[in-house]
Every structure is written in C-alpha cells, then in structure tokens.
Amino acid sequence: MENSQLLQIAKDFGSPVYVYDADKIVSQYNRLTAAFSNVKSLKINYAVKALSNVSVLKLMKKLGSGIDTVSIQEVQLGLKAGFKPEQIIYTPNGVSLEEIETAAKLGVQINIDNLSILEQFGTKHPKTPVCIRINPHVMAGGNTNISVGHIDSKFGISIHQIPHILRIVENTKMNINGIHMHTGSDILDIDVFLYASEILFDTAKHFKNLDFIDFGSGFKVPYKDGDIETNIEELGEKLSKRFNEFCKNYGKKLTLAFEPGKFLVSQAGQFLVKVNAVKQTTSTVFAQVDSGFNHLIRPMLYGAQHEIRNISNPDGRERFYSVVGYICETDTFANNRRIKEINEDDILAFSNAGAYCYSMSSNYNSRYRPAEVLVYNGDAHLIRKRETFEDIIKNQIEIKIE
C-alpha cells in the first residue's frame, strides 16, 4: 500500500484506523503452502485470535484455509464467515467442560490440553474425535509472555505425562485422531522447532488412529528492513522430508497441520494515527498521537518494536522523537526513534499492525475503538465502523440513585 493510498484512507475514514492489505495476506499464505509443497496433505488453520474480523476470515476461507479457534465465540465467528465445522479446530485453555461440549456439538475438531478434562470428555463422549495438545518442554518465543511450550507453561499436557494419557485413552476407549503442539511466537531458530517436532513424532507413535499432526506455528516475521525472520523455506524442506518419513513408518498418510496467525496477517496491517501535538521537554521531543495502548498494546505488553513512518512527510529530514499516546498512564510506542520530521496533523503509520493489535484493543479511558479497512483488489473497504458513544453505553444499565 502506497503512502498516497494510506493518506487517502486516513482522510476518508478518519484516524486512528487499522488498514489491512489483502494482497500481502494472499502472498504470505501462498509462501507458506509453497514451502510445504512436498507434503501431499497440508492443512493451514488460520489463528483467528490474531485478527478476527469476519471479512478477513472470509478471505482466508477463499484461500483454502481452515481456522484455529480458542473460544466458542471464535468458533461462532468462523461458522458465520462460512467455514464448515470440519474446517475448524478448537484449542481452548482453561475453559469449562461445558464449553468444550458445546463446541463438540457444533461438529468442530476438539483439541484438549488437560488430563482431567480429557478423562471427563472421553468418558462422556468416547466416539467424538479428539486431538491432544502436548507440551514439549521446549523454550521458544521472543518474549516470556508468548513462549508457551516450556516446562512452567499452563498450556498442553506434559510429555512426561504420556503414560497418564495412554491410561485415559485405554480406559475410555476414546478416539484420538490428532496430536498437537505450539512452542511459542517469534521462533528464530528452526532447529529448535525441528527438535520439538521430533518430540511430537515420538509422541504420535503411541496413537494408532491419527489423521493429522499439528505443529502449531509461531513463525517470526520481520518488523523492519533487514530484520531476522523464520526461514520458512528451509523449515519446509527439512520438516516435509521428516514428516514424509514418519508417515511411511507409521503406515498411513497423515495431514501436516499448522495454525499461523502473525505470519499471515502481521505485515499486512498498517495502523494510522494523527499527530495531535509535538511537545518539547528539557530532554525529549514527544510526538503525541490520537491513540494509545487502548488501541495498540503490544509495545507496552511485549516490548514490540513497530516501525513508525511519517507518511505525511516521507522526504523530510530525520529527527529523534518519542511517540506517545493520550492515555492517562505511560503509553509509549517508541523512545527516541529516528523518524522523518513530524508536525502537528501529520499521519504516522505503524507497520506490522495486522496481528494482535485490533483484537487486543479496548475501551480504556472510555475511548472508542478505531475503524478497520481492508484493501481488496486495490479498493479500500470499510470492514468495521469506528465506535460511537452509543457503543460505549449500550450494555450499561442505569439504576435509580437517590
């Protein structure tokens, strides 16, 4: 998306606004499938939690993707977007047995990561196909908050508890049709991922009726020019070879599944904000924008470094700015960042704003959540309206106070 188009979108739809480039989503999807073209049965399940707008889900469906969901509401969103139940995998954590049973009644693939829930579900529904999420005890991820495969993680059933799993399966006669893992986000070293995959292969040998093995995702994308990223092509070559060998030894052709979120949509997103004021202090120049961590929390939560460009003055000289928001706590997007000279009313563009940005937004400070726009076939389409005051109060109930 060119600066001129982004500036026009900011003018037409106001700021702040999230903008997604459908062409980039398509190219990332095609890149991933091409990397694993040597696998006869490949299933990509887009992680809905990354960006859950129904129009984006419909685009994923058109590409041939399934979806990975973590809540019953995401399952319902997928069904509304047109996915068939068999195209949806449901991988919750810490939810009630009742929610899992509700998802099972809808016909989606169930993925369980708790011994107690596994036994309860298997006892009541032994014929329902179930995938088991394994914790491989492998540390992977760029931040402790997004590393989910280590020994202290709340996610998955420990590989050291495989005997307990086998006992439950034997006692309940339940149908285990998949094995799954997810080590964490921002994986840099594919050898770590391949090591965890070997643990998953060893686990899979214990189950004789599998249909698929799900390797999760967590592939790192670049956040600036020259930034390191997961080498998908090398991973595809090495893991495909190993997966095909496993299937041959297993005696059955299985499906290799992934559940990418960030990899597919992160780079497709731009978050556009307007500069309200430029504030010079004794030590810093602040660019104060019409947003805050109520709209984009990743820099504050994960220390994420989103590239920030001044698309109103792309040819200006560079100066150092701290880009901050309008929230009543510290909401610093960037500290002493080199950005083209900023003036009030300029539009700044935050890159890599497609994943875990709008989906983690809130109404903190009673601010409205922004609009979302999808650029599809070159045209900008509004896919979510900006909230209004009526949205803030619609579910509030006023009582009589005397």
TrEMBL record:
InterPro entries: Ala_racemase/Decarboxylase_C (IPR009006), DAP_deCOOHase_LysA (IPR002986), De-COase2_C (IPR022643), De-COase2_N (IPR022644), De-COase2_pyr-phos_BS (IPR022653), Orn/DAP/Arg_de-COase (IPR000183), PLP-binding_barrel (IPR029066). It catalyses: meso-2,6-diaminopimelate + H(+) = L-lysine + CO2. Residues 18-354 form the Orn/DAP/Arg decarboxylase 2 C-terminal domain. Residues 23-266 form the Orn/DAP/Arg decarboxylase 2 N-terminal domain. One of its GO terms (molecular function) is diaminopimelate decarboxylase activity. Keywords: Amino-acid biosynthesis, Decarboxylase, Lyase, Lysine biosynthesis, Pyridoxal phosphate. This is Diaminopimelate decarboxylase. It comes from Mesoflavibacter zeaxanthinifaciens subsp. sabulilitoris.
